[in-house]
TrEMBL record:
Keyword Iron annotated: no
Protein family per UniProt: Belongs to the short-chain dehydrogenases/reductases (SDR) family.
Keywords: Oxidoreductase
Record gene name: fabG
Keyword Oxidoreductase: yes
Stored Gene3D superfamilies: NAD(P)-binding Rossmann-like Domain
One Pfam family linked to the record: adh_short_C2
Designated name of the protein: 3-oxoacyl-ACP reductase
Length: 249
């Protein structure tokens, strides 16, 4: 298995994307620690992983609380011996409106919360990875220089901001053997709410791809597991495009 004897921490592990990554990590042999705010969602993913024969533990932690995040990651390392993979899929609250219509405080708060959570969780994992001289930090969303979609509001801006953080982490952590990789997405269609209003959005994502296909949660998990594994050891300080060609990073 690709991730046997590895330890993975997934912030936002109770969500659709985080859960898909956790499933894939566990299926490849990793011991997975799911972190989030909603116990029922975390336990649902953990139960699914255990039923498939994997190892999963959960913890309710506010990713914007540095003390709580650090206490948790220290406990993970004490229990598992290391933290080999850390991924935070907590993103800014999506405000899908024209920028001119978004109240300034709402925009600023959403972006600030996302960046704060990313900075805190990455710092916590990096502290241990630097000591180990190894580890993989995964990010999700990515920066699409060709984005021409109106009405995206703060969503792509939030992804761009997180990607800027990732680039800076790359520079600072590479000398310590820590890899940093972003999964660049054009939209994961089976993560959308199953309502008629989302059909047009799903189709637009498919239409944007030269192959007329769109990534699924299973695709996200499969690529994340490969990138985090030793087979992906040459991939760092970059984005991995999982958009079927719809994005241009």
């Amino acid at each position: 298995m690709l991730l046997e004897n590895r330890t993975a921490v997934v912030y936002g592990g109770g969500g659709t994307i985080g859960g898909a990554m956790a499933d894939a990590f566990a299926a490849e042999g990793a011991r997975v620690f799911l972190v989030g705010r909603t116990p029922a969602k975390l336990e649902a993913v953990a139960d699914r992983i255990r039923a498939a024969g994997g190892q999963a533990e959960t913890a309710v932690v506010d990713a914007t609380d540095a003390s709580a995040v650090n206490d948790h990651i220290d406990a993970v390392v004490e229990k598992a011996g290391s933290v080999d993979i850390s991924v935070n899929v907590i993103t800014s609250e999506g405000l899908f409106q024209p920028l001119a219509d978004i109240p300034t405080p709402d925009f600023a708060t959403a972006i600030a919360n996302s960046l704060t959570a990313q900075l805190i969780t990455t710092k916590a994992a990096a502290r241990h990875m630097v000591k180990q001289e190894s580890g993989v930090l995964l990010f999700f969303g990515g920066s699409d220089a060709a984005n021409i979609n109106a009405g995206m509001g703060n969503v792509q801006i939030g992804f761009d901001a997180v990607e800027s953080l990732r680039r800076q982490w790359s520079v600072e952590l590479a000398p310590h053997g820590v890899r940093t990789v972003t999964l660049l997405t054009g939209g994961v269609i089976d993560s959308f709410p199953d309502v008629p209003e989302m059909e047009a959005a799903r189709q637009s994502i498919i239409d944007a791809s030269p192959l007329k296909r769109a990534a699924t949660t299973a695709d996200v998990g499969a690529v994340a597991a490969f990138v985090a594994s030793e087979k992906g050891r040459s991939i760092t300080s970059t984005q991995v495009n999982i958009s079927f060609g719809a994005c241009y990073g």
